[in-house]
Specification:
Blueprint lengths: L14 H19 L3 H5 L11 H9 L7 H22 L1 H22 L9 H11 L11 H21 L2 H32 L1
Helix pairs in contact: 1-4, 3-5, 4-5, 4-6, 5-8, 6-8, 7-8
Length: 200
Amino acid sequence: MSSPRQRLRLSFNSPVVLSFAGICIAVQILNLLTSGASNRLWFSVERAPLGSLRTWARLVLHVFGHADWDHLLSNMMYFLILGPMLEEKYGGRSLITVMAATAVVTGALTMLLFPHVRLLGASGIVFSFILLSSITIRETRTIPLTFVLVALLYIGVQIYEGLFVNDSVSQITHIAGGVVGSCLGFVMNERSKWKARRES
């Protein structure tokens, strides 16, 4: 007997990536409903008193806030393309670590270097993913040429835009995100190879 035709169904293939995207959309809707107050109070980061718990929360939460729908959609397109591949390769916990580290580093840099600027958005994480996705190490103590080329092109564009096109705030956070993704990518690759050798 022939098996009945299976129905198509949606697959929640990347829980971390899809959850992050869903939170960003919910935060943007909340921002509209509060006329921007939620972003100002919680989902952006700027220099603020370190004694306030809200300051420390915003150090991470700022990656969920976006200035408008165009800002959100431009980040989510890259995020949803790169994220599932990285979550499958490294696992959800490792990806959360990369995202949280990127949020803290970019937020801290903004507080330290740009006292009159308010930062929000997931672009630092997106650039972290770009460099992280270019790292595929097959041999110990090697640096992939593809990673070198992506890093040079990426950093070159960011420096050019910082000097001649836009303000330097977002470019510095983009570069910082890329550095975080690169460093953690090499660590995670080495750790996975060490684990594979131990299990073999």
